[in-house]
Amino acid sequence: MFRWRNVVIGGTVVLMTLVVQAQRLSDTVIPEHYTLTLQPNLDTATFIGHEQIDVTVKQPVDAITLNAAEIQFTSVAAVLDGRERLGKVTTDAQKEQATFSFGQQIPAGPLTLKIIYRGILNNELRGFYLSKAGKRRLAVTQFEPTDARRAFPSFDEPAFKATFDITLIAPEGAAAISNTNVVSDELGPYAGEHTVHFATTPKMSTYLVAFLVGDFQCVSGKSDGTPIRVCGTADKVQYGQFALSAAAYILHYYNTYFGIRYPMPKLDLIGIPDFEAGAMENFGAITYRETDLFIDDKTASVDEKKNVAAVVAHEMAHQWFGDMVTMQWWNNIWLNEGFATWMENKPVAAWHPEWHISQDVAAGLNRTLDYDAQKITRAIRARADTPAEINQMFDAISYGKAAAVLLMTEQYEGADVFRKGVHDYLQAHMFGNATAEDFWNAQAAASHLPVDKVLSSYVTEAGEPLLTFAEPVNGTVQVTQQRFFLNPQAKAEGQQTWTVPVCFAAGGGQAKCDVLDAPQKTLQAPNAPVFYPDAGGRGYYRFALTDADYARILAAVENGLTPEERISLLGDKWAGVRSNHDAVGDYLNLLVAMKEDTSPAVIDSAVRPLSTIDRQIAQTPQEKQAIAAWVVKTFRPAYDRLGEPAPTDSPDKKQLRASLFGLLGSIGQDTDIIGQAKTLAVQSLKDAASVDPNLAHVAMAIAAENGDAAFFDDLQHTYETAQNPQTQDMALRLLSLFRNPDLEKRGLEYDVSGKVRNQDAVIQLLIAMQSPATRDVAWDFIKQNWDKVQAQLTTSMGAYLVGGASSFCSEEKKQDVVSFFSTHKVPASDVALQRAQDAIEACITLRADQGPKLQQWIAQQR
Length: 862
Ligand SMILES: [Zn+2]
Fold this sequence. Notes:
Strand order of the largest sheet: 5-4-8-2-1-11-14-13
Bound molecules: zinc ion
Shape: globular
């Protein structure tokens, strides 16, 4: 799956709360094949299912238990002793299970269960659900992790792989799409319907099954002989060409990389108007949120293009890693998500080298390290038994941290050796299931290096190490490791020791790596003009250096380090401030050394903490003004030197201009820039093609922050009438940025009015909760309108909303948040609430530690 990108997701598995009811199925009855016919009724939002499950009973049993939720059984039958017998069904709604008994023992051997049932097309964006586009209705599916059981009674665990024959009965004129190709399509059985049979699937897990019925249209292409389509509703499919080109490039790239051909007869990418996650890797039929698939190549910003390409590449990586070879159980979901998150970057970087994807990866690593350095975090592999626990596994640890650990391991082994390990692992478990051990044993066998120890230490230890380096002497350096926390008041319980490949930069040459596997060790470090113990910015650790080594780096920062290494250095310095090892002024001085940097990713990484300094550390209007003045003085010259936008500008130059413009207009409060932003925003709304889209996006945000009712009306109109999903999405998001309290309230009312899809409503509230300028009004609104807000919450959106309370910075607000959510419970959000509390406490500490240091620094600037 691809979770919504811009929210840091709270999530870890709490072991001590409830005694978890065992919800796992027994392994005495094994499904082999499903024959499934589904007949959705779009008008009544219900469906009828006819199902046969061929199972193998391994030892005699009295009854058969499988998963089912919100299913009404019409009949269950099985042939026993040569004659068909009707079964008795008992259901357990809490465990989401159904048990069939036939009044006699069921002998070992093959058995066919025949089931007729009814279900509902729900509006919760999970299971078999209803999506709406204008007056039209679509029936679509989202099963990961545990919702296939809402569409068909099934052995709904990833290790119960089976083959599937799927048939859809759809209204005449509506398209039907499933995992494999259509083998027959005939009118009937009743007037106004057609019946579509799909080819038998390979062995696969239930959570990867998909079926869709609706007015889909498609654009088609081909890659390495595999037919590819991008499909969506009639008004959206015109924006499918970019994703189609991406998919064609990526399919060939992966066929080559894995050395194993794409395993399905066709590939469909389908945009769905209502979709909770970003995308879902259903085998051969990937589904997407429309904004993660459809794009207008001419008016899209570089970031929007990168995003669509990345989500397409992510889901396609899953076709091998996750779909063809699947984790044995959800505790190892990182094998799916970490791998796809790491892999998505490779084909995109090869497709568009000018996008400098590796710099975005380095910036992402900083965010992940910050997340993992909070008091509440979890190991990559963690226990998860119930659906609520399993849902909380889809967090920044399974995605970002696992991906970062794979990247570090790849650098240590070398890319070709790592690829061989990947190939061998896939080949050995094709169409089966595997564990973390299977993966790292394959890597150790391919590389003859202790990568099994590296991976097992990072997969089982929570948090991250801080490596402290002494002065290097004669090609060696002493290093110690300890667990690192951003909040200086957090303490590790006992010594944690990671097995860390430490790679030393050699001025852009081949990195030299050694392994730290003890609390303290002397490593081999090559002699280089600048000692930098994090080659390529790919290490999953924070590091601290002697003052002399740091001074040498600072002197050579713009030509001695790669952009990725500069991004990593910025992250380390900022982590030093957050943990109170460094003063906030040290960080601001590093920014001065890098203010002329020409990489937009470096500048974005450099200025990201400025918003924390502005929002969390600065306490008075005078301090905020001093920061604003310093921002303009420091960065305005670099912005002016870029000159007027020209069509011939490189993507880097366009993005750099947009980044600096955004910085000057928001934190800098540069009145000249704010004026320009308002003009550009109006111009761009009138004619999107007339303004560089990168610049237009930041200009719109500044204009909304400073916007009036007329601009609000324009954006609302754009949201309600635009066809391009990116334009629509941007207009909606901007409505959450208005700082005028009356307009902010209008935006909040609108979010829960029913006119905004529930896939977006919570995101809107979250955006308003993020800024100190809007969060108090937003929080009061949420509390006073809880019934309306709660009506918008889908499975994971509830936890996001609770996590949004983390932007407060006072003891009083912390108590308020905790007491509110204690009496207004949101399912599967206990960890998000703990993380929010933790973040508020960290902010209070940061303000107390760094507030006086900021005042000192401001005094020195005069
Ligand atoms: Zn995924």
